[in-house]
């Protein structure tokens, strides 16, 4: 996978959430779309109606779409910080951070357009200096 595109109701509002609220840096200047360089891939924000039209599908959608996005942190404390930043930026915490059945620590928030993000610390995976996640365990 190289790009994940999120359909958003209000591009300016979504940009404020990701840039001012979460501190992400935008990587383009075109007004109709926003791109963010992530670890080895790109996240795009694009108006929902435009995205649906581009894909040739109806723009009406409701409820859980069967997908979550995830951010893996290096510690339980990083999970706490990221979820607190998201909540301060207007996200809705949908599951408080907690120890989880698989041995890690995580919580979930929904961004301003309802996209659900998990923020997790997985003690069985490793992250390199750039934040690239590996299924190989910690040393």
Summarize the structure.
This protein has 139 residues and is of the alpha/beta class.
Residue share in helices?
10-25%
Record field, number of beta strands: 9
> Uncertain runs with pLDDT below 50, 5 residues or more?
none
Strand content: 25-35%
Judged by helices, strands and strand pairing, the structural class is alpha/beta
CATH class of the largest domain: Alpha Beta
What CATH architecture label of the largest domain applies? Roll
Rg is: 16 Å
Tell me the strand order in the biggest sheet.
4-7-6-5
What is the rounded distance between the termini? 26 Å
* Main sheet properties: 4 strands, mixed
Number of helices: 3
Q: What is the mean predicted local confidence, pLDDT?
A: 91
The CATH homology group name of the largest domain: 2,3-Dihydroxybiphenyl 1,2-Dioxygenase, domain 1
User: What is the 3D shape?
Assistant: globular
Order of helices and strands: EHEEHEHEEEEE
Briefly note the CATH topology name of the largest domain: 2,3-Dihydroxybiphenyl 1,2-Dioxygenase, domain 1
> In the residues, how many domains can be counted?
2
Can you give a write-up of this model?
The chain is an alpha/beta fold. The protein folds into two domains: 3-54, 2,3-Dihydroxybiphenyl 1,2-Dioxygenase, domain 1; 69-130, 2,3-Dihydroxybiphenyl 1,2-Dioxygenase, domain 1 (Roll), CATH 3.10.180. It is 23% helix and 32% strand. The protein has three helices and nine strands, in the order βαββαβαβββββ. The protein has helices at residues 11-21, 48-55, 76-88, and strands spanning 3-8, 34-37, 42-47, 69-73, 92-99, 105-110, 116-121, 126-127, 133-134. The strands form three sheets. Strands 4-7-6-5 form a four-stranded mixed beta sheet, covered by helices on one side. A three-stranded mixed beta sheet has the order 1-3-2. It is globular. It starts with a strand and ends in a 5-residue tail after the last strand. The model has no long low-confidence stretch (mean pLDDT 91).
């Amino acid at each position: 996978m190289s790009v994940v595109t999120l359909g958003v109701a209000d591009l300016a509002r979504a940009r404020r959430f990701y840039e001012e609220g979460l501190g992400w840096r935008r990587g383009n200047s075109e007004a109709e779309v926003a791109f963010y360089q992530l670890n080895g891939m790109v996240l795009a924000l694009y108006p929902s109606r435009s995205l649906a039209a581009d894909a040739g599908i109806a723009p009406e959608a409701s409820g859980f779409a069967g997908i979550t996005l995830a951010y893996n942190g290096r510690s339980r404390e990083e999970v706490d910080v990221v979820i607190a930043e998201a909540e301060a930026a207007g996200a809705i915490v949908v599951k408080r951070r907690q120890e989880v059945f698989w041995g890690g620590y995580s919580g979930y928030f929904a961004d301003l357009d309802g996209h659900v993000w998990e923020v997790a610390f997985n003690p069985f995976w490793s992250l390199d200096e750039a934040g690239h996640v590996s299924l190989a365990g910690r040393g």
